[in-house]
Amino acid sequence: MIARLIEGIPRRALLLLGALLIVLVAVPLFAGDYLLTVLILILYFAYIGQSWNIMMGFAGQLSLGHALYVGLGAYTAAALYIHYGIGPWLGLLAAVLVAAMAGAFIGFLAFRFRVAGVYFAILTIALAEFARVGFDHWSWTSGSSGLFLPVKQYAHNDLWQLRGYPVMFYYILLAATVAAFIGCRALLQSRVGYFWLAIREDEMAARSAGIDAFHYKMLAVVISAGMTSFAGVIYAFFYNNLFPEQVFHILRSIEIILGPIVGGVGTLFGPILGAFVLTGLAETLTAALAALGVDLPGAKQVFYGICLLLVIVALPGGVWPWLSKRIGLTERNK
Amino acid sequence: MPADIYLNVAVGGVLTGLVYGLMALGLSVIFGVVRVVNFAHGEMMTIAMYIAVTLFSAFHLDPLLMLVPIAAVLFAFGYILQVRLINPFITRPDTSQFLLLIAVAIIIVNLLLIAFGPDARTVQVSYAYDSFQLGPLLVDATKLYAGLAAIVVAIVLFALFQYTWIGTAIRACADNYTGALVVGLDVKHLYALTFGIGAACVGAAGVMLVLIIDVTPALGPAYTLLAFVIVITGGLGSMPGALVGGVLIGLTEALAGLLFSPSAKSMFAFAILVLVLLFRPQGIMGKRAA
Amino acid sequence: MSAQLSIDAVSKRFRGLVAVDRLSFDVAEGGIFAVIGPNGAGKTTLFNMIAGAFAPDSGAITFAGERIDGLASDRICRRGIGRTFQIVRPFPALSVEDNVIVGALLHRHHVTDARLHANDVLRRLDLYDKRGQRASGLTLPDRKRLEVARALATDPKLLLLDEVMAGLRPTETDRMVAILKELNRDTGLTILLIEHVMRAVMALAGRVLVMHHGAAIAEGAPGEVVRNRAVIDSYLGAEAVA
Description:
heterotrimer
């Protein structure tokens, strides 16, 4: 099985991936708190980006409301923890279910009623906004005043309750990102993956080759939504507070798509590269500005906007396809 | 609640709705002709609003007096944006253009944030608290002037498209891109003009809106979405549809704010959007989208 | 031989225009049946109805004994009807091999099995050597063969070919004709084709239907049909037969 997964990938690429993994595993040993937090953010966006990529890069459906699934995952797990004392890993099961159902709902509406392309994107925006305003008024999750998880002083890492030092979250996210990467690779090589690519390329031609496009598009949406909700659960237990205004905001949804688009939509390594490049550079920018004594809220976002613009104008396929050709890493199937 | 409160709120909603309609008109014109989904629409409006606010606080100039110059500035902005940035992407897939404008939107919102800070700015005109009594109706002066201004601009726009040569040429491009090229129309220039006109519309709407609401940098996305809801509800490519949609949304918003809670009103707009997308994607007055 | 595909008084109108007018004919299993006629005669509309792009307004389409009119295109493919498009639609970013694997995966669940079958099909269509190339980089004749290959990989019992010879030079046309003939002979695959290239029609078809203004004006063996007065007047022209 491993042989199939690595089939077609040039040895150089495998070695580099392996080296990267070793570095990432070892980093917490030398990294300071700030660097660790940045890396956690990078891995968080890499993971969500990979999840989003399934819908867009593989099945061709542009979702601009992915923050919906993050939020649903976060709120489900957090609310169950606060109101019923249910641990986050069990809460995760509920979170994935809720997000998957939301995805199925959106998918059903869109695909049954032929809402596609830009209209689909607008629909996803609308539903995320709906959730944002809705949760603002929902008292069970404390509405707009925010949902707070109890934070006690911890002397050690409690993996089961997800209470602990940032290092614990780092390794969880690293494991998740690696799992997502491998999972996506396996999916792409499978029958489902082929059907997704066919649908992305030309849905009508795919249907006349016998592919039930509705079924496979729904699958992509549900998988993507479910995967994304895991990140939401981590978010909730890492930050310990949730505000609908922040969690469901359209700017969150846009942050989610920046990594994959800059890195390369539809590629496996694109979202990861994108997350590293964008978040890494952005944090460097902020640090540099701080060193100069300048505090510009919004500078980071301007930077993101410019990156997005440059990528669309100059490198529409993303940085990764261009880079991998440069350093001679092109494989047969991305 | 007594009936005249409903009536007052409704009338206020209709007047505000006219301004929304003008804003949406800009989006409709851009989409109908250039076929670009302008995700930076609300941001362009915010630029206009900030210009109005700045001029007001510096020189005490009434925004409505500044309507034409500010609309002209936005026209230039739109024109240049189209020529320099968007036109090379005409042949790319829709999602590319969409994302391009999202990038522009992000940059604008945050530049405004850096320039003006996150606090809300307002324009306190001398008649800010005046109102007119028309029978049982109590109408805010600001809303009345804004609504009337919106109607005037809309009429000017209709006249432009119906009766001038430029308007006809633009409509030709919208109808048949290749045909327009073949008869020698400078489509690139006409597209840019159209984008400029759309931007001027939204700029004008912004100036009017400044009388009614507070300005923050993050206003953009919410109004872009509102413009989409209106345009899709009223019908893509239909100019009267945009105004009808605007009034409908303004009315719904105002009444929902009264009956439920002010902050929940956007939920209704979105509910309408979802229903329209599902059951009547061409909108109330639209032709079948291409 | 029994009728595999049965078109029964099928009609379709688009607003004011009657595209297909109470058309009836049968296609025998294992045969090669051609539909010819001037542009606008309704041939592609007919194909679209058989392939499930839209349903007829009236009449019935029966395949292997079961009604298929009104079914969605993916279900029709699963029932055993493969189709190609007049303007070819390969999956541009995928390789030639992957394009055909997509077709082969319809009735196979493992990519390895699908790849084996895809390679067989590619060999038959003379595309095996180009299997690693991106579909978007192929020449037109190659893209046409790829389109056929992909449809073939879905293991159809009936293959619908929509003007598959269009734009091909005579040598390429002959090559495609040879491939299709061999396919029909070796596997008994029924072929229904729309064609303007008479050279191909005469070489391939066992039976020909001529359409004009949505209705059938002649049906029979190719030799008879081309000598039919009405067919000559409406479509072929006297020189074509001389």
